Amino acid sequence: MKIFLSAILFIVVTQAILPAQIYHFNKLTVEEGLNDGDMHAIGQDKYGYMWFGSLGGLSRFNGRNMEWFTHVPGDTSSIPGSLALSMALDSSGRLWIAFETGLVEYRYGTSSFRRVAAAGETRIDKLLPVGKRKLYMATDKGLGVMDVNTGMVKYYRDVAKDPEQKEWFRTRVFSMASHGDLLYLSAWKGIFVFDTVTERLEKIDIPQLKGVLTSSVAVDSRGNLWLGSYGRIQLLKIPLTGDYQKEAGQKAVSYDRFFSSSEKIINNNVNAIETDIHGKIWVATSIDGLLEYMPETDSFRQHVHKPELKGSPSGDLHRCMFRDRDGLIWLGGNQGMNYFNPARTFFTTIMPFSRDLDTRHRRMARDLTEDRNGNLWFATLDGVSSYSPETGAYTEWNNRLGQPAALWNNSVRGIHRDKKGDIWIATGGGINRFSTGQRKMEFIGNEVLPTVFYFGISEDRKGRLWFCGRDKDGFYWYDPDTDSSGGISAHRHLKVFSGLGGRYFMEDSKGRYWLGTNGGGLGMYDPSAGRTRLWTTGDSTPVISGNKVIEIREDRLGWVWVSTDLGITGISPDLNHYRTFTAKTGLPANTTAALRIDSLDRIWVGTTRGITMIDSSRSMFTTFGVRDGLPAATFYEHSGYRAVNGDFIFPSVNGYVRFDPLKFREDNSPLRCYLSEVRVLNEKYPVKGEPSELKQLRFRPDENTFTLELTALHYENPGQVWYAFKLDGFDKEWTYTQQYRAHYTRVPGGNYTFRYKATVNPAGWDVPENVLAITVDTVFYKTAWFLTLIVLMAGMLLYGVYRYRLQQQQQMLELRGKSQMLEKEKALVMYENLKQQLNPHFLFNSLTSLRSLIRGRPEMAGDFLDGLSRIYRYILKNREKETVLLSEEISFTETYIKLQQTRFPRGFYVNMRIRPDCLDRKIAPVTLQNLVENAIKHNLIDAESPLVVNIFTKDNYIIVENNLQPKEFVETSNRQGLQHLHSLYAYLSDQPLAAGSREGFYRVKVPLIGGETAE
User: Fold this and answer.
1) 361 in Cβ contact with 390 (< 8 Å)
2) DSSP secondary structure string for all residues of 287-352
3) Is the alpha carbon torsion for 107, 111, 117, 118 positive or negative?
4) Is residue 186 within 8 Å of residue 218, measured between CB atoms?
5) According to the model, what pLDDT value does residue 971 have?
């Protein structure tokens, strides 16, 4: 036996003070947005948002964000400057809030409050809606009621006629509960029952409450009246059967024994009594935390704050309690808000030890096993402990300085029960075995197994134990039947894995051995084929996700799944197929540990960021974290365990997590999903009314970049919510995401429909859908009316030019009376030139092209119109000039050519080669345009036989030539155009204008005026 420096068997048998944590309490504090942590009232509005009343005012919570409301002096639309004591939602969805100084109604949409003047400044401790119109009030003036439709308030003390009734109605009322047509009142002078039909009040005589002030009252689903006291603890249950008003004293059952002191500690109050969705009673106290009534044993279970359990309540003082529409129980106290789901107890927590959890890392859980008596055996960083779920007792084995050794080493990595019932323990220094028959801890020496560092113990189908060690062979076996053992270095085939270090061993359904190593990858040995195989990470394929293997499991299809330090990998050795999941493909983290597969073939894997369930299709991932009841989110380096009853138990850094995987079903219940905020260009966009009720939105053209924020109410874990949205008319497909904001940028003007919905089950989207109509106004120059206006203006312009032509024609006719023939001929030529410039076909063809562009290609219509305007601006500018610069004429002609190429996008080409030294020469206005127009007029234009016009300078001429492919009929030709050009240039230049056809081309040579250019 190895002797430590000073260690002894340290055995502790004690009654557990840390039972399994049953419910997970979520918490809201100032850090989560509360305006302060001193809670006094809880409510829920018609949208499902939670409201909290505290010393600082009111907070509204949507599961993600908190909104504050405080008193503003002089602002009558703000809340009163006193404490909120109660909240109630009436049948029409109106939210009423009772204060120490009166009653107010919350105004949806305006985020303001309306004070009910008829209620005065009365202190109202409790609100209770009954029917469609009545809101009963427990006040310091006694019982009151308000008609929510008319706003009229009545205090029964003021209307009662009977002296005894009047006296009873004068007593202050603290709380109320309804049961049919009756209200049960806890009041200053005792317990009363009020008939809402006859409006009569009767007192219930309860001797046990003599001298005790009752502060809380409730009726459970079994028809029991529950009463809680104030100042001196008292909790009673009275069955509402028979003549209970006379027999209440005999029927009352007291539960004082479940409180912290039978002497009834002063100021230990029952502050609230609530029923859950199953009718079970919950009691909130000032000292004893939260009490849960267990009807099967007629007893209470206590839920108090435990620093070592993150899922326990944040404190033991609870002033108010509320059950929301989804069944969650909300608790308000001096530590903020706590809330939990009493119907969901999926995860429970078991600690490795009963005490000293914050010393020697005793929270850290490692491996575990279960003995034949149902006791759990825990392998920990501080030895071994045995826990009895039945009695709650713990027994410890660990080493302490100065005492004999209890184990080879306190660092215990693995633990396993063999088929004989003995417990085998793998430590950092060797193997221990606890003989259940002799109740003795044994040390296994080198003659059986090497005394090295061990990670774990597994068992094959023949009952042989496999020990996975860090050193030497790495894997060792022991056969309990023959009491023989050995290492893999002596095995003919397995020796190839020797020295890699052992982490985990598994034999699959086909008898193959799977060996997970401590950094050397995954090995497989097939005894039937006598072959081995090793998978590692690296450049080769196939590979596994990581070389350090934690656990190995086989699914129903024969795939072997491996958890590693870098993700999980599935291997189908028969099909040679592989699948790997990491943080990039669905896992919350790459580092994985415990891995188990349930009977529905779903994979459960512990990671350093929670537990993830991968469905049987291996496509959907559900992740659980601290908000779901886990004591910690970190599961690191240790395998999981399947209990005898089928539960999975995973070790974490803060205890063991136990759960029944078959209790988990995908939640297909619909979520209330709302539009909670609109932002434009990252600034909050003001909307009229409550965003949740918006049916349509209208944005200006410059507001076409916007964000729509969605809120789905899932208070237990908002991180599990999936959103789906689509902007019809903009999005082609639905977007599925866990991001709650829908961003849209540069949305074109138009009408759209925004569709959105939410679920916690991303595999099931058959849930209600919401719609929002969105209009983005169009920029004015892209609107139909503006384009129509442009066409009309162009038409008016062309008509004006046409009218101008007629006027010019009349002026030309007047010139016939001039005496000199040359001037007369010049005028005729100028007149004919203008006539050619303003060819009607060009005008109407241009209008036709413009109309076509407006309909088909509106983005080009403006450019076309600009070109047309430049043409007529040039004509008007130069109509009195005899000549213009060649550079100006070329620029004008290029504009004209572009317009014609809009008409003839294929089959019409113009090539220009103008020497720069010719640009300062002159030419008659619109000469080149007329020649290009003549080429178009007299020749066919076709994509297969294009018309090509070449314009170039040579000698002192500018030459316009085109290939000849003449039309059979030219409708508007009068055969006089070239003759007039001849006459005009005979007048302007000494060099003649020449024209003619040759070798399939038609060429016109136009003399350049002014100066000569050298070749």
Assistant:
1) no
2) SS-EEEEETTTTEEEEE---TT-TTS-S-S-EEEEEE-TTS-EEEEETTEEEEE-TT----EEE-S
3) positive
4) no
5) 60
Q: Where are the alpha helices (DSSP H) in 919-976?
A: 927-938
Question: pTM for the complete prediction?
Answer: 0.67
Pick from 129, 214, 207, 128: nearest CA to 171: 214
**What gap in Å lies between CA 415 and CA 361, rounded to an integer?**
18
Q: Report yes or no: 209 and 227 within 8 Å, Cβ to Cβ.
A: yes
Q: Which residue has the higher pLDDT, 977 or 1?
A: 977
Position 76, amino acid: T
- Say if CB 149 and CB 105 are below 8 A apart: no
DSSP 855-916: HH-HHHHHHHHHHHHHHHHHHHHHTT-S-EEHHHHHHHHHHHHHHHHHH-SSSEEEEEE--G
Q: What sign does the CA torsion over 915, 916, 922, 928 have?
A: positive
- C-alpha 961 chain-centroid distance: 70
Task: Name the DSSP class of 939.
Answer: B
**DSSP letter string over 831-872?**
HHHHHHHT-HHHHHHHHHHHHHHHHH-HHHHHHHHHHHHHHH
Contact yes or no for 176/183 (Cβ under 8 A): yes
- Render pLDDT for 468-524 as a digit per residue (tens, 0 to 9): 999 999 999 999 999 999 999 999 999 999 999 999 999 999 999 999 999 999 999
Q: For the chain, which domains are there?
A: 673-778 (2.60.40.10), 782-1007 (3.30.565.10)
Q: How confident is the model at residue 211 (pLDDT cuts 50, 70, 90)?
A: confident
Q: Per the structure block, which two tokens stand in for 336?
A: 């903020």
Burial pattern 252-277, b for ≥16 Cβ within 10 A else e, equals beebbebbbeeeeeeebbbbbbbbbb
- Measured CA to CA, the distance from residue 740 to residue 735 in angstroms comes to 11
777 is written with which tokens?
């106004």
Cβ-contact 590, 582 below 8 angstroms? yes
Pseudo-torsion of CA 319, 323, 328, 334, nearest 10°?
Answer: -10
C-alpha 347/C-alpha 312 separation (Å) is: 13
Amino acid 664: pLDDT? 86
Taking only the tens place, the pLDDT of each residue in 894-910 is 888 888 888 888 889 99
Strand partners of residue 697 = 774
